[in-house]
Design a protein that fits this description.
The chain has 208 residues and is mainly α. It contains seven helices and no strands. Helix 1 runs antiparallel to helix 3, helix 2 runs antiparallel to helix 3 and helix 6 packs across helix 7. The two termini are 26 Å apart.
């Protein structure tokens, strides 16, 4: 599999592009985590309310227990304290529910803030990157086969190269290719490889 080009300019561009993508993904993740932390801070009032309600509940239960030991009227006097303790428990439960809701919102907000730019970035970058890897890998395998590689690459160059690229070639190249001239075929093949950022083999079989 061919992951990067052979030619320095194309190789540098690919490395920089990949590095930029990694950095942007990292920043998106950091932004998502920051968003989660900011939203999660909204649960602090609920946490304080729960702590206070739990503390009050404990004190009321303790008071009810102490009063309950009083003779004759202990149970009657202790009942309001038990009711208030139960109410405090309900308030603590409500405060806990608020915290859970805020935490779910924080997770969702963090995921959205991180995921949306990452998905957009990958949707733009990944298909082009994969397409190049597939094309370059196929071209590399073709070049290593040697036999018939120049002819196939030349045909592909004529079929898919932009006109501005073909216009840079000497008009005699096309005529030479039609006549089966190896040099003309090699020139077209090199044009296709150059488009992918690849070099011809060191043995120069394309020019043979």
């Amino acid at each position: 599999m061919k992951l990067y080009a052979d030619r320095p300019a194309r190789l540098l561009a690919q490395v920089l592009n990949d590095l930029v993508v990694v950095i942007l993904i990292y920043l998106a993740v950091r932004l998502g985590r920051g968003t989660h932390s900011r939203v999660a801070e909204l649960s602090e009032p609920g946490r304080q309310a729960e702590d206070q309600a739990r503390a009050l509940q404990g004190k009321l239960r303790g008071a009810a227990g102490n009063i309950d030991d009083a003779p004759l009227v202990g149970g009657t006097v202790a009942k309001p304290f038990r009711d208030l303790a139960a109410t405090s428990g309900d308030l603590a439960t409500t405060a806990q529910g608020y915290q859970d809701t805020v935490e779910r919102m924080a997770v969702l907000a963090g995921l959205l803030v991180a995921a949306v730019p990452i998905v957009i970035l990958l949707a733009v970058w990944l298909p082009r990157r994969i397409a190049w890897v597939v094309e370059a890998s196929a071209a590399s395998r073709l070049v290593r086969r040697a036999s018939g590689a120049a002819d196939l690459l030349a045909v592909r160059a004529l079929a898919r190269q932009p006109l501005r690229g073909l216009a840079k070639l000497d008009p005699s190249v096309v005529h030479g290719w039609k006549a089966g001239d190896p040099a003309a075929t090699a020139a077209l093949a090199r044009l296709e490889l150059a488009e992918l950022g690849l070099r011809e083999p060191r043995d120069g079989f394309l020019a043979a």
